[in-house]
Amino acid sequence: MGKGASSTADAGKTDAGPGGGRLSRIAARRLSTDASVALDLLRALAAILVMIGHVRGLFFVDFGQVADKSLAIRAIYFATSLGHEAVMIFFVLSGYFIAGNVLRALARAGWSWSWYLVRRVTRLHIVLLPALAAGFLLDSLGLSLFGAAGPYGAAEAYRAIVPVPVADRLDALTFLGNAFYLQDILTQTLGSNGPLWSLSYEFWYYLVFPCLALAAVAGGGLGRRLAWLAAAAAILVLTGPLIALYFLIWLAGAAVLIALPGPAASIVSVGPRRFLAPSLASLVCLGVLAISVTAGLDRIAADGLVAVAVALLVATLADILHDAGDRPAGRGWVRYGAAQAA
Known about the structure:
It is built from 13 helices and no strands.
């Protein structure tokens, strides 16, 4: 085995003791089909909220300009005002799932940066590169047909969607910066596609978390741990304070994964009450979303509240519907309760 391969294998080795036991517990835990469906539904709802938020900004006036603020109108504007909050949902879910992939690989002593990066970059680029190409062509066509009028010139009515003139950010350097996840770091987002900001955040979090995990559990002594910790710190410093701050929101999802009990336990009772916790967590989440949109809180503080509420919801869904290895086969809480009573 070559030196490089040996180093990769060593990086995946975990220490014995509490850290190793915790990793084993995380590796043994599996989401059930129901839990996967529930979390996929949450992700789909977040995607829909992002989409309709952008659509409303392009075709409808701001709520302050609406003359008839009936209850129905208020409800419609509330439901279409949650695009930014939906991105926080994505961050929490990303932290939950990506942290699981990383920690399970470490638990198996099978961590490989090349394996991990190929998977992550492929999943991002298969969507990002066509989107960049299509956006570049459509924005160029729009500028040639309509000039700097309307959204292309960042007219006031469209400034929430396109904050600066499109021509100022439609060049090869900006294209390349977005292709390498440097938007909002060294370049602006490409053309009129402002939502690209979140992809740069995601990509750098994909790099920071494994560094922190390796610093916490990988073998090789104190020097190697400090090196991984320094690498994580360097990434956060170089990407800027805002990306570093929002990493805490991404980590909320990872914290859910780490904090939940092992596959043989559950923090929520089985039986009819098993649906009470996610129902209550959903209500809390809706309440926090309403506060975020209407209470005029500081943006970062509001996003932090949303992250906590979403993490609570993810925790209840993952815990109640997880695949417990010691539960009897078959569906239904009655069968499980009868087996426990016996």
